[in-house]
Amino acid sequence: MVISVAASTNLVLALSAILFSIGVLGVLLRRHVLIIYMSIELMLNAANLAFIAFGRLQGTIDGQIAVFFTLTVAAAEVAVGLGIVVVVYRELKSLDIDRLNLLKF
Question: Which residue did the predictor score with more confidence, 23 or 105?
Fold first, then answer.
């Protein structure tokens, strides 16, 4: 059985939507900073998967180029984000979101 490019693109986009939805639920329902951070990364990777699928549908490498730049920004985000998480943990001895509200004062 041969699957056309359009049909396989639809399957990949459906997978991307499912992964993005899982990421959104993780951000909205979890209270731990690292799990929220991983959920944001999952949403970013779901968007990358959609870029690749649309690029394949068009027959160009534009989607792959966009993913390359997105991954470059994500690497910088990881470095800064984990640095902030380490500093917050050193100050509060906890990574609970409710305790981060105390950092305003």
Answer: 23
